[in-house]
Write a sequence for this structure.
């Protein structure tokens, strides 16, 4: 008996869309509507393609039964079976101590790693016991049955040195470590460098050509496990020098392999002071500081100052330091990125003195390589917090990175993005952005969004499946929000410890979790600070400026 309803009919006690036939054949519109009827999203999700031929030979009740199985898996245990994502959309899920995202679309190895890095993750990696191996087997066990996906990238390769297999996070696979190689795997593979799982071989490991296209699984990393970055950031300020023979004298510079007078001196064997025009001056206490736009070596600058009865600037107090910095920033913007100071360790390596003879109070002896062996530029200047954390600032106009690349950048110096604990830290970072944004816009105007030059990433984010109130700092501590933010959203106030934590949200509305642009919504899972010293959540793929921190993040010394 057939009973018609609006857009639906009932047959054999089962209600289903009128565009469907109860018996085969079926069309794609029918499949989509039945998938939706089962509670799945056929747009964000995907009907497993390997099921379609079989479903096309059966009746609607059996089709709904198969779809109900998928829906049940999605709602009860997302770690069981790849079909769980196909009901809704791929989601980050946590199993044991790992957080994973399944990506069914095949890419080459490098593109897979870049995809994961853009999401603060690496390709599933560092499998050190059978428990972690079983997590991935359990999740992907029906990938062939449902999606005809057999081989999946594994986050291990020997791209750097043939035979030295390295996990994406930088750890080398050592003798005695857990392995699960295919029995046919041999250590010699000169043309193949990237790891895979093979479903039809019992999820054994093997090595393949990195240019092949395979699906993959991203695994979240945290500050204690910074990844080995393949997208090398090689932005270094190279200084090239001509070579003159014989070497030039003190007041000369080598230009096009010829010694000429420095701009600080002119004729009569480059012995006369050129009388440079001052870019600006200022007085603090009984000292007058004058800035010049001319360039010189340290020795030339020292002698030039002596010729005008002075010395290079000596920042021997915090007050003088800030004054000199403000004058340099205000007078030399657009002309220079650095300025000589009156301090050296020429007398004894590592023992720094001002030109007055006064010893300099040294910063801490950082145990890390602050340029990552040349992979990142030297920082412009640094500040310290009340609890001995250090922040490093970079004022290159074109140093603009997405959140994942910014994390990688700081990881090169074994640091992380800033974890802001008080107003002093927040103010310094906001002032840095405010002081540089106009210069950056002039030097590198070709950026699509005005927020880019006004903002820098901070170490706060949330997972894609987590609610806004789960925003947390990279050390795992939940972030605090304004009281009105909780009240307006009908949320309980956080614990007393969280509510005492510093925050500087641009409220209202931040954080709001989404940005609308041209009728399209963009999810915002990462957080940045703006030049007005306020925080806002933002799309992790956008590119902002970078500030790094060395401090108390788990695993750092």
């Amino acid at each position: 008996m057939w009973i018609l309803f609006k857009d639906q009919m009932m047959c054999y006690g089962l209600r289903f869309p009128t565009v469907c036939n109860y018996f085969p054949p079926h069309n794609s519109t029918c499949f989509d509507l039945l998938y939706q009827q089962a509670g799945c999203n056929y747009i964000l999700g995907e009907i497993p393609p390997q099921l379609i031929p079989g479903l096309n030979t059966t009746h609607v009740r059996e089709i709904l039964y198969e779809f109900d199985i998928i829906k049940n898996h999605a709602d009860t245990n997302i770690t069981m079976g790849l079909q769980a994502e196909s009901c809704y959309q791929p989601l980050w899920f946590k199993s044991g101590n790992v957080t994973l995202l399944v990506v069914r679309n095949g890419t080459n190895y490098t593109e897979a790693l870049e995809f994961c890095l853009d999401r603060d993750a690496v390709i599933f990696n560092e499998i050190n016991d059978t428990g972690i191996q079983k997590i991935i087997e359990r999740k992907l066990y029906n990938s062939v049955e449902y999606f005809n996906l057999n081989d999946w990238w594994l986050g291990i390769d020997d791209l750097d040195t043939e035979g030295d297999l390295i996990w994406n996070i930088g750890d080398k696979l050592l003798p005695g470590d857990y392995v699960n190689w295919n029995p046919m795997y041999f250590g010699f593979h000169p043309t193949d460098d990237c790891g895979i799982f093979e479903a039809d071989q019992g999820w054994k490991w093997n090595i393949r050509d990195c240019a092949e296209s395979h699906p993959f699984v991203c695994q979240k990393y945290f500050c204690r496990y910074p990844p080995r970055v393949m997208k090398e950031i090689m932005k270094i300020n190279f200084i090239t020098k001509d070579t003159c023979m014989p070497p030039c004298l003190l007041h000369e510079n080598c230009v096009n392999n010829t010694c000429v007078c420095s701009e600080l001196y002119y004729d009569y064997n480059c012995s006369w002071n050129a009388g440079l025009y001052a870019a600006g001056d200022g007085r603090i206490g009984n000292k007058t500081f004058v800035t010049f736009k001319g360039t010189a070596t340290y020795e030339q600058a020292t002698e030039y100052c002596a010729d005008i009865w002075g010395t290079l600037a000596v920042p021997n107090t915090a007050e003088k330091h800030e004054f000199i910095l403000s004058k340099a920033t205000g007078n030399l913007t657009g002309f220079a990125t650095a300025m000589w100071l009156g301090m050296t360790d020429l007398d004894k390596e590592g023992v720094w003195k001002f030109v007055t003879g006064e010893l300099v109070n040294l910063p801490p002896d950082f145990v890390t390589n602050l340029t990552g062996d040349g992979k990142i530029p030297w920082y412009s200047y640094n500040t310290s917090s009340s609890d001995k954390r250090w922040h490093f600032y970079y004022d290159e106009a074109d140093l603009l990175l997405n959140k994942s690349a910014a994390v990688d950048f700081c990881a090169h110096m074994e640091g992380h993005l800033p974890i802001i604990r008080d107003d002093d830290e927040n103010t310094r970072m906001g002032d840095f952005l405010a002081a540089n944004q106009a210069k950056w816009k002039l030097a590198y105007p070709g950026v699509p969004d005005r927020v880019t030059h006004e903002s820098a990433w901070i170490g706060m984010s949330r997972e894609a499946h987590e609610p806004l109130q789960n925003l947390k700092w990279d050390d795992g501590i939940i972030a605090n929000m304004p009281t009105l933010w909780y009240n307006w959203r009908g949320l309980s106030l956080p614990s007393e410890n969280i509510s005492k934590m510093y925050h500087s949200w641009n409220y209202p509305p931040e954080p709001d979790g989404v940005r609308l642009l041209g009728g399209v919504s963009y999810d915002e899972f990462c957080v940045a600070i703006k030049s007005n010293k306020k925080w806002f959540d933002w799309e992790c793929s956008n590119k902002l400026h970078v500030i790094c921190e060395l401090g108390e993040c788990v695993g750092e010394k």
Observations:
- The first strand starts at residue 2 and ends at 5.
- The chain is about 25% helix and 20% strand.
- Residues 1-5, 223-242, 553-557 have pLDDT under 50 and may be disordered.
- Residues 114 and 231 are 7 Å apart (CA to CA).
